[in-house]
Specification:
The complex is a heterodimer of chains A (195) and B (231).
Chain A lengths: L1 H21 L4 H23 L2 H18 L8 H23 L14 E2 L1 H6 L2 H9 L3 H12 L4 H8 L3 H23 L4 E2 L2
Antiparallel strand pairs in A: 1-2
Helix pairs in contact in A: 1-2, 2-3, 2-4, 2-6, 3-4, 7-9, 8-9
Chain B lengths: L1 H4 L1 H10 L10 H11 L6 H22 L6 H15 L3 E9 L18 E9 L12 E7 L2 E7 L2 E8 L3 E6 L4 E6 L10 H12 L13 E6 L4 E3 L1
Antiparallel strand pairs in B: 1-2, 3-6, 3-9, 4-5, 4-8, 6-7
The chains are: A mainly alpha (195), B alpha+beta (231).
Chain lengths: 195, 231
Amino acid sequence: MLITFKLQIQSRLILLKTIEKLKANDGEAQKLVYNTYGNMLFVIAKRYMGDTMLAEDMMVNAFVSIFKAVSKTRFEALKPFEVWMRRIVINECLSELRRKSTFKMLPQEAGEQVGVAPDVIDKMGSEEILEIVAQLPTGYRTVFNLFEMEGFSHKEIAQKLSISEGTSKSQLSHAKRMLRIKITGLYGKEARYRY
Amino acid sequence: MGKKQDIDIEKIKEKLHDSALSPEWNNEGVWAAIETKKPRMLPIWKFAAAAAILCLFSFGFWFMLTPNEEPILATLLDTSVNEVSKNSAKAELIIIEEDVIPNAIIRKTVKPRPKSIQKIQIVLKKENIEPSKEKKIVEQKVEVASATLIAVKGEYFIEEEEIELAMVQKLITSKGQKITLIIPKEETPQRNGILGFVQKIGKFNQTGEWGKKQKGTFWAKFVESTKTEKL
């Protein structure tokens, strides 16, 4: 337990030194940062873009921006560096989505207001859930990500996506509903849960 | 009911925040694309090395293009002008252009020269100076540390060489300056080489008067030394 803790501390120190090297455009440091954070950032890009190839494109743009902007920023710890990188990836995705999508409301599907049984979700794999989120329409998916995953308010989301607060709330509601429908569609009526 | 219902959404969020989540994606392909797009910054030493190589090439190129001329002429030009202007002698810039230099009469020690050469020399012209009417003001005897003799045999340019044995006598008059080249008399006259040639010239031109340039005769033009010392 103690050894694991020591190793974690050591690897964090190495990463902190690596971040400093990034400022000098060090190729090895860039590769190390990519290998360490690439997967985590790809998950974010995939959640926003839905499509794997689009997410990969966003990763390229985001990392180019990261390597370019890192020299102008100072990091005392790893956490702010991670948060900063996440924000860059999200901004890249949002600018691409704004360019492609108008975030219009889709027609509401009629259906029961039912939830998904918690044990069903527990049994599902993370990759499976990511795929379901990725299949949501762009507007639903974007608002769901911003509100539920990043913790932005509807007011902030409205500003970011140039939509009204009401639209943001509706999109979120529809996103949740569609998620439930998709999961229960996969796992049958047994997955439905009435609160 | 809304809050209760969102328990499933909380579970979904937990799953999406799972750090072990690793969907399939083209990790290496993305890195390759990043490498081609990322801004490149060459280390400073590479810039320095490139600049040094460029400098070397430029210098080499310049060195190859510049003709290998002896710097003595330029030195002579300055000193001669000064000497002459002080003493109100007439100085003339003469540009001599030799088209062909016969190989047979170029000394072996002379460095390879171009077929056509252009030389600028200063020649002291002693015009209309009659020895009987000369008003001697100063007689100066100077030791020539390195006098330059431009000797001409017939019409051919023979050699330009420094001699350290000759003496120069300056006779400064109101009309101008007369310079006499005094060739030292050696006990054993040299027949060959520049010293021998200088002695021959001395035989013909002991007084320093310039004879007319005639084919087949020796004559010489003396250009003052760059370094003189008063005796």
